[in-house]
Amino acid sequence: MESRIDIAKAEPAAYQAMYGLEKYLSTSKLDPILLELIKMRASQINGCAFCLNMHATDARKIGEIEQRLYLLNAWRETTLFTPKEEAVLALTEEVTLISHHVSDATYQKASGFFNEQELAQIIMAIVTINAWNRLAITAKVMVG
């Protein structure tokens, strides 16, 4: 499989705008592990090998354990994730699979753990990783 296009080179202003969202998210007060879980779970759903590789590496660097990374796609069947993380993972799945819409129950559960600003940051993180996944998959960005 060969890469198709280097978006950063072909359209640097657009790429920098996307990168601006990443810079904004890095300044949020959200737990960095939570942000990596969002990025990993959306990337699993979307099948983005490049993003999975990057965010698994990033998660390990900040202290995430292997077992949780291995079981992330089955988070409902383990007790390794906190109720707060479970609420974010459910929201991540529903936003990523948006054609099914975000249920009131999922949104309400997440809003029980986070204030409006934090919830907005979480939603932006989910939307941003989904955009990165779509860019990487379409451009066939390679791992390795």
From TrEMBL:
<dbReference type="GO" id="GO:0051920">
    <property type="term" value="F:peroxiredoxin activity"/>
</dbReference>
<feature type="domain" description="Carboxymuconolactone decarboxylase-like">
    <location>
        <begin position="12"/>
        <end position="94"/>
    </location>
</feature>
<keyword id="KW-0575">Peroxidase</keyword>
<protein>
    <submittedName>
        <fullName>Alkylhydroperoxidase AhpD family core domain-containing protein</fullName>
    </submittedName>
</protein>
<dbReference type="InterPro" id="IPR004675">
    <property type="entry name" value="AhpD_core"/>
</dbReference>
<dbReference type="InterPro" id="IPR003779">
    <property type="entry name" value="CMD-like"/>
</dbReference>
<dbReference type="InterPro" id="IPR029032">
    <property type="entry name" value="AhpD-like"/>
</dbReference>
<dbReference type="Pfam" id="PF02627">
    <property type="entry name" value="CMD"/>
</dbReference>
<keyword id="KW-0560">Oxidoreductase</keyword>
